[in-house]
What does this fold into?
Amino acid sequence: MWKRIFYLLPITLLLFLSCSQQQPTVNRDGVEISGKITYDRVPSAIIYGGIAKLDYDNIKKLPSKNIVIKAIGTDGKVITQTTTDKKGRYSLFVPENSIIKIRVYARMYKKDYWDVSVVDNTNHKAMYVIDGSFHNVGTKHNIRNLHASSGWGGEDYTSPRIAAPFAILDSIDQAMEKVRIADKNAKFPQLTVNWSVNNIASAGDANSGQIITSNYDGERGLWILGDANSDTDEYDDHIIIHEWGHYFEDQFSRADNIGGSHSPGEALDIRVAFGEGWGNAWSGIATDNPIYFDTSGYKQSSGWYMDLENGAQENAGWYSEGSVQRILYDLYDKTNEAHDKTSLGFTPMYKVLVGAERNTPAFTSIFSFIDALKRENSSESKNIDKTVAYENISKIKDAYGSNRRNSANSQVATPIYKSLRVGSSINSCTQNNYGVYNKLGNRGYIKVKIDSDGTYQFSAKANNYSSDPDIILYQTIYPHKDIGISSYEGRPDDTLVINLKKGNYLLDVFDASFNNSCSTISVNRANSNYKTKGENGAVMTKPVRRRGLPKRQYY
It folds into this structure.
């Protein structure tokens, strides 16, 4: 058997012009070319003092799974194509004596099931590929093994970081595999990962690499840091999988998370606490490793880590992403402690996320998730309560978190939801003692029941002139989206007039100036002669500059 070993040439970029993809060609006529695609995985190491670093002394050679492979002719046309298997192996056939090169794409693809690609956002979204040299295949079996190296030269990156896009894809494949175990028929909407060595932790033009931090953009796009000797995330599998977890929420479940900065010890908006706690826990669930790490600094040697299972409690409660991540990981894993007697695995959690949590009439939170999980796993209800109680969260009896005992020393945090009837008004207060925008106390949640179809006016009137109250109206059926926001900017009173169908709705009330303030919120039937405008019949009281909702980024 004739055997030729392929030696990898530097990584190249290919401008990918279409998201469509044909099925891999099945053609066994001609000469077989087979081989294995591998990449360098740089593992993490935990060192004294709570520091995480990349361990370049123990680089592992791992297979690239489900990767698109093409045989390219001298005219640039694709002769045939296939994908690698779970061991990184591929096989394809080309005509005898043809001159071809093998091209490996930083893309995982299976028709109707998944399509994930890694592109350079700083180079016109060019997809990363590895190109080999042209060669004559002759008449006998060719073996062409390709390996993507890390580019590490001992003290710094001294050659192209070829392995990085394939490491990212492998982390995502690990997350997808965990979902596929829970649901063999799971289909993953197309996802684009934007990674570049130019991606830095700075705000600005994302297409120039200023992405703030690794994040999910809410539009089926991940943005991953790649700034060497500052902050790189391509080998930080927990970071990659955390951000993919936001994609999962968005595409499979529901992402009510309003985005913004956060940390495990903060008192957060309930939607943020759940969304970020889920992302952290999910990274441990997908990898079966509770040590969450983020490497950074010179030589990627001064990052941090946390223990998702046994980490110290800080400000524990229903508003804490730290509490959420510990609860979710404890409910999943097989390692039990005195407060944790439950080992559900992921499948029951998956069923809640894609079912009851997706359709809950409340905002998504630890309340809506645990309420549904207990109802669907009633034999484990008491053990679930015990795990939740350890995080200073009293027994959860409904999706709204009724009867909370722990208010996090906030005068406005409880009750978590208030109710507003047509023809009446209530008082809603906000506080900024934990920060602004997405922290506990920044927003009030109000349930509204509309008994008949018609036009309604929602009003907010602040108790002082320095406040700027806003109200956002949400429908409570999937996709649970916002359908209207009050009209005025910079005023102590505001209104929203909108045509509504009979049903239940939610208000998110906040002070756009983020003062400590109170407002009177009311809803009444309005003049039915308003002309409808926009989706769901939203109308404005008069021509004013519409206050837009901020673009959500999930960190």
